[in-house]
Amino acid sequence: MWKTIKRWYHQLGSPVYFYRFSSAVLPWLLPISLVVLAVGLAWGLAWAPVERYQGDSYRIIYIHVPASSGALMGYIAMGVAGLVALVWRMKMAEVMLKALAPFGAVLAAVSLVTGALWGKPTWGTYWQWDARMTSMLILLFLYLGIIALQSAIRDPRQAARAASLLAMVGVINVVIVKYSVEWLQTLHQGSTLKVIGESSIDDAMKWPLLISMLGLWLLYAANVLMRARTEVLNRERRAGWVRKLVNRP
Amino acid sequence: MSGVWWAALRRELTLIWRAPADMAQPLFFFVVVVSLFPLGLSPKPELLALVAPGAVWVAALLAVMLSLDGLFRRDQESGALDQMLTAPVLSVVPVSAKLLAHWLLTGLPLALMAPLLGYMMQLPVAVLGTLMVSVLLGTPTLTVVGAIGAALTVGLNRGGILLAVLVLPLYIPVLVFGAGVVRTAQDGLPTDGLLAVLGAILALALSLGPLAVALGLRISAGD
């Protein structure tokens, strides 16, 4: 088991192998993600039962929760990629870090917008400085910071390493921000979906939510692979295999 | 090792001491920004006392951040930074001396000035001590965390705005707890817990921060 993981790690660390691997995976991953997302959203938006107190307005949960979780997971993944890039100087981790940022930033923005739209009918306001909303706003700032830093440094390797350090500091920051705003009066409902223990959400609402989440995560993964492929080609443009690929000897 | 550290500290202090105007600027900025609030809002004492903790803290935050932009730039232009990174000592040693010198001549004066500004913002006298302690505990964290951003942007010619974009989100926990401590004191509640949290964040920043700054400088130097 451990040996297999190690071999995968080393193989995917090679740009050539990654390019071939992603060429094989992507034609499947992208359509599958779109289908899963469409199924989850359609089920959630049209067929899931109406909520007792919030009526139909709760249905935005099927966009809001997947987007929020995707944004958070994406940033944590950037922190991990940053650690790998700085400690083991692995080129593909640098590429991944860069590829993770744009879609994650979009998801954070989607989470904020859908949260605001959901807040109006249920809390009576579009915006409150509530703990989770504030944390998500900061997360968006951190994403934008990473993108800004990367675009300011011309050398791609140096840009990626700088972003790696910033992402790691950012992950620590996200944790502290979460606790720092928690002592403010919090308006947000607690999590209804739990990995461990009984979820307080009904099965008829839970399954479409889980499917939408899975679909969005797969779409995120497909987006990351596509961006990483472009970045790999750009970085390795002088390498023999890329020249062969584009038929220019 | 400690000889190098002391020499680096002396160098920094001497450099800053010989350009006293640079040292005065963050402090002057701090005073000016805080005095904009009564002019912009309204001189009503109750209103000012309400916004005072946040106003003083935001001004302190910006003062430290702006002062950090030049922290490594001059050394980089003169080549001293490269010497520092290639010297046969861990680069954390001179870097931590540099950070301490920066705090002594920026953060410490801000903390000493904070009670006066708090008083001008109509904070009750009993709260001013808490304000000073909170700024005293918070500014070293601001220096260290901001220096990570300064290290990463040292080679870029449009560093200023980028530094703000990178560093200000990282300053938010210090702002929340720093201003929160003062507000808690205003309400007459015990502040030990929140001060302890500020201290904990400081401990984290002091233990890992200088390493991150040194690494950031290495990255910027193209390592």
UniProtKB/TrEMBL annotation, chain A:
Record key words, sorted: Cell inner membrane, Cell membrane, Cytochrome c-type biogenesis, Membrane, Transmembrane, Transmembrane helix, Transport
GO biological process, one term: cytochrome complex assembly
GO terms for cellular component: plasma membrane
Signal peptide start and end residues: none
Membrane-spanning parts: 21-48, 60-88, 100-119, 131-150, 162-181, 207-228
Chaperone is among the record's keywords: no
Keyword 4Fe-4S in annotation: no
Domain Cytochrome c assembly protein: residue ranges: 11-188
GO molecular function, one term: heme transmembrane transporter activity
Role, per record: Required for the export of heme to the periplasm for the biogenesis of c-type cytochromes.
Family: Belongs to the CcmC/CycZ/HelC family.
Protein name as catalogued: Heme exporter protein C
